[in-house]
Amino acid sequence: MATLRDVALAAGVSTSTASRVLDERLPPSRTAAADRVRQAAADLGYVRDPLAAGLRRSGTSTIGVVVPRLTDTVMAMLYEEIAAGALARGLFAVVATTHDRPEAERLAVESLLRRRVDGIIRTTARTDAPLRIDESQFGARQVLALRADGIHSTSIGDDTLGGYLATRKLIDHGHRRIGLVMGPGYATTATNRRDGYRNALVEAGIPLDDALIVGDSFSMEAGESAAHALLDLADPPTAIFAVNDNNAIGVMAAAAARGLRIPDDLSVIGYNDIPVVSKLPVPLTTIREPFNLIARGAIDLLLEDTPGDEPRTLVATPTLIPRKSTAAPRAR
């Protein structure tokens, strides 16, 4: 019997694309790729069996979404995109929070599974404490969004590229002494953005200096503290890339407390493009994370008919949003 993977291979598309094309609940696609999928399905005699889908329906039509906290604008934005995408697929999303604690993450997932959700999307993955739960006893799959753990399939933004674009923007302005405000080392969003920062410096022939990398949390307070540490250096940076917009707001607060003007005395760039940063007294240059694409990818992974044994990673491309917080450095 032909499988969805057979159809996708014959049509030259991904399994998730073939699944979307053949899902009768969705508006029919009129693209050439969709036509190839339908023709391949007909040629192979493929018949979609909803009960064979990777998302094993328990009858609740509900998916659980696990986030660190909804007071974090990034997580709230992503959850809203997941909820909207789920609704478009005939599913209802419920949320649980963990405050980024591994023990709370396990409790949240197990609680959702006991409530017979049809699948779970987690934004809480940690590389230092990856969560492993036997899903077979619950008949529900888990996938990740925003972060990765090397175990589960995940839908993420290209954070390495985003970190590169942010740093390259500052280099192109003429900055050579560029600080980095980091997030937690267990979050791939932070570590990949750091890697992009380093890649841009190496490409430009700027020596790496670990003294310019400070911080361990996604918060305004952490950003403010990290900025003070960077600005206290004997040779302080003329620009700072913060791997999260909240961190960047904290950097701007630290600069204001020191009487520094942005961007005249210090250029600042953030990451995510949360709504408030375009309304700041000095609008923040930032990297826009494609939350809609990340959410859509996570749902596609959850709904895959044939998930396979190897984890898959879907990657969406971020965009540089230039505003008023970056400029050429002043002569010292």
UniProtKB/TrEMBL annotation:
Does the entry feature the keyword Transcription, yes or no? yes
Give this protein's Gene Ontology molecular function annotations: DNA-binding transcription factor activity; transcription cis-regulatory region binding
Provide the leader sequence positions: none
Q: Which InterPro entries is this protein grouped with?
A: HTH_LacI, LacI/GalR-like_sensor, Lambda_DNA-bd_dom_sf, Peripla_BP_I
Q: Does the keyword Transcription apply?
A: yes
Task: Please provide the record's keywords in A-Z order.
Answer: DNA-binding, Transcription, Transcription regulation
Q: Which residue numbers delimit the HTH lacI-type domain?
A: 2-57
Q: Which PANTHER family match?
A: HTH-TYPE TRANSCRIPTIONAL REGULATOR GALS, LACI-RELATED TRANSCRIPTIONAL REPRESSOR
The protein's name: Transcriptional regulator, LacI family
